[in-house]
Design a protein that fits this description.
The complex is a heterodimer of chains A (about 325) and B (about 260). Chain A is an all-alpha fold and about 325 residues long. In chain A, about 65% of the residues lie in helices and about 0% in strands. Chain A has a single domain, classed as Orthogonal Bundle (ABC transporter involved in vitamin B12 uptake, BtuC), CATH 1.10.3470. Chain A has twelve helices and two strands, in the order ααααββαααααααα. In chain A, helix 2 packs across helix 8. The longest helix of chain A has about 40 residues. In chain B, a hairpin with a 3-residue loop joins strand 1 and strand 2. In chain B, helix 3 packs parallel to helix 6. The longest helix of chain B has 16 residues. The chains are: A mainly alpha (about 325), B alpha/beta (about 260).
Chain lengths: ~325, ~260
């Protein structure tokens, strides 16, 4: 009897841990997916540079709080938290500064590479973002290769204990950050600028004719999108996530790629779709990884990484616009 | 007053759409710009409102002046701020947005008076008030045209350019649109009415221009154009006193052109 109870309790602990892990991974997916969505909504371009931009954002933070200054330049970050015992408030201030830098990075990219393409075929713009990805990648890889870039997260890999289950603080932080970001994006959509963004997405020329500054809408979309993508990569750099508190040369560059099923599932232009899509895909991935592991010999190791794509395929067969995508409005 | 002088517009560096077009829109008047397909009516509207860039078009000669100043032809938003709004051909409403949101997009250049302009649009088009929260793409054709006009009015323009507002509307709705245009004009807005429906346009216009292949071939007071035999024959479909139907087969094309130009 007592053995059964223990087993049951153990099962409960496993479930809670798996659930928290799924929600945390979902939060990362949501952040990066929102970055994709907001750029797609504003400019109708699927931003293939999201991977490089998000990783660059994480490297910015590593430079600020890990190195404590710009490399090769006589600039020391006066707000850098100490490496041994990082201060939470200082770290958060740095995080906010880095998000602004990431947004600025997005603005610069938009100004140099995207703005001249206003009114040009969307496919050309999408391919340009691919070019941006390739152009930023060397910076990312070299910057991580010079030395291990730690994100110096104040709470490290600490965890709370809840009914015997280990709840890492990073996972909770991920959920909080994703909730805030999601709320901000949804509020933004309802705002005036959000309406302008949707109008530009629907018909650029007609929006211009109304006096909407299309260039400004593009800039805002890219700034916000880049900041969100960076936030996603930074959260993924917190301890119990696979890169282990660092910017990883192996894992970070392909992070955005793993979000592709999320945005396709949620609908490319839907913020709430990104939220549900992120949760569904992450849950499928984490729960399959945990509970199907006994059939590892049949499924093959690493099967959990293809689960998102299977889910995506099934959903697309039923709903081609994604779960929450805007179906075309047309009077017949 | 809007003055277009000797305007020449070229698309893709080769296609000459306007060749030396000159028109004037005096304050407070309705001016009609008529012509058949491909005459360059829409190109004129684009040249005035700065939308040529999107279509790979360029103004190669001539000037567009508004109240004595050159218009910033590469900045459509700035042009709207100077007081020129356009209702584009084919309505071009934002189908996925609600009626209210569509109206908001028109108010970006004139935020301070948004409330006042919104009330004005609602007064002008009570139908839109009933459908405020509906998705704009689901409105009927006439309502969509009203929405497009209302959206342009949200910027409180001094000059409203209407590009074929009667396109695809039933005769009864065309009459409604016409009445609305007259009312807007009476409230103090100049109107440049670009139309294929000459009957409708000339019935309200103070002055009219007729275009063919990129330039004005005939102009005059609305009443004078309405009574002109050639206009009657080629645009209004009336055929003089005898009342019998004339076959277009017997009219040589070059003869038509010669007569316009003379």
């Amino acid at each position: 009897m007592s053995i059964a109870t223990a087993l049951l309790a153990n099962a409960g602990t496993t479930f809670i841990q798996t659930l928290v892990k799924a929600l945390a991974l979902g939060s990362v997916y949501i952040l990066i997916a929102l970055g994709f969505v907001i750029i797609f909504k504003g400019t109708q371009v699927l931003n293939f540079a999201a991977g490089a931009i998000s990783m660059a954002g994480a490297i910015f933070l590593a430079i600020m709080v890990g190195d404590g200054g710009l490399p090769f330049l006589p600039f020391d970050n006066p707000l850098a938290p100490s490496l041994d015992d990082p201060d939470l408030v200082l770290w958060l201030i740095n995080l906010v500064i880095v998000l602004f830098i990431a947004a600025l990075f997005g603005l610069v990219i938009e100004r140099i590479a995207i703005r001249p393409m206003v009114g040009q075929p969307l496919f050309a713009m999408a391919v340009i973002t691919l070019g941006i990805e390739v152009a930023i990648r060397p910076f990312n890889l070299d910057a991580t290769a010079i030395q291990a870039r730690t994100l110096n997260v104040p709470w490290g890999a600490d965890a709370w204990e809840l009914w015997g289950a280990q709840i890492p603080k990073s996972y909770v932080a991920a959920m909080i950050i994703a909730t805030i970001a999601g709320a901000v994006v949804i509020l933004f959509y309802r705002s005036r600028l959000g309406v302008a963004m949707r109008a530009v997405a629907f018909d650029q020329e007609a929006a211009m004719a109304q006096g909407i500054n299309v260039g400004r809408v593009f800039a805002i979309a890219w700034g916000l999108g880049a900041a969100l993508a960076a936030l996603g990569a930074i959260v993924y750099g917190m301890a119990p996530f696979p890169p282990g508190g660092q910017v990883s040369q192996e894992i970070h560059p392909i992070l955005a790629l793993r979000v592709l099923p999320v945005i396709v599932l949620g609908g490319l232009d839907s913020a709430s779709g990104a939220v549900y899509g992120g949760l569904i895909i992450a849950s499928a991935e984490v729960f399959a990884g945990e509970y199907l592991s006994q059939w590892n010999s049949t499924l093959g190791s690493g099967y959990s990484t293809i689960v998102p794509y299977v889910v995506m395929l099934i959903v697309l067969l039923v709903k081609p616009y994604g779960l929450f995508g805007t179906a075309e409005v047309r009077r017949v | 007053m809007l003055e277009v002088a000797n305007l020449e517009v070229v698309y893709n560096e080769v296609i000459l759409a306007l060749r030396g077009l000159s028109i004037e829109v005096p304050d407070g008047q309705i001016v009609a710009l008529l012509g058949s397909n491909g005459a360059g009516k829409t190109s004129t509207a684009r040249a005035i409102t700065g939308l040529l860039d999107v279509h790979e078009g360029k103004t190669t000669k001539g000037t567009v002046t508004w109240n004595g100043k050159q218009l910033p032809i590469h900045d459509p938003a700035a042009i709207v701020r100077t007081g020129i709004s356009q209702v584009m051909e084919g309505r071009r409403i934002f189908a996925e947005l609600s009626v209210d949101e569509n109206l908001i997009t028109g108010a970006f250049t004139n935020r301070s008076r948004e409330k006042h302009n919104y009330d004005r649009v609602m007064e002008l088009f009570p139908r839109l008030g009933e459908r405020r929260t509906q998705t704009a793409g689901l409105l009927s054709g006439g309502e969509q045209q009203m929405l497009a006009i209302g959206r342009a009015l949200m910027a409180e323009p001094e000059l409203l350019i209407l590009d074929e507002p009667s396109l695809g509307l039933a005769p009864k709705l065309v009459e409604q649109v016409r009445d609305v245009i007259v009312e807007i004009n009476q409230q103090g807005t100049s109107v440049l009415l670009i139309e294929q429906n000459a009957m409708m346009a000339l019935s309200i216009a103070n002055y009219g221009y007729i275009m063919e292949t990129g330039k004005v071939v005939m102009d005059g007071d609305g009443a004078k154009l309405r009574d002109d035999d050639d206009v009657k024959e080629f645009y209004l479909g009336l055929h003089g006193d005898e009342g019998e139907k004339k076959s277009f087969k017997n009219i040589k094309h070059y003869k038509r052109r010669k007569r316009w130009a003379s």
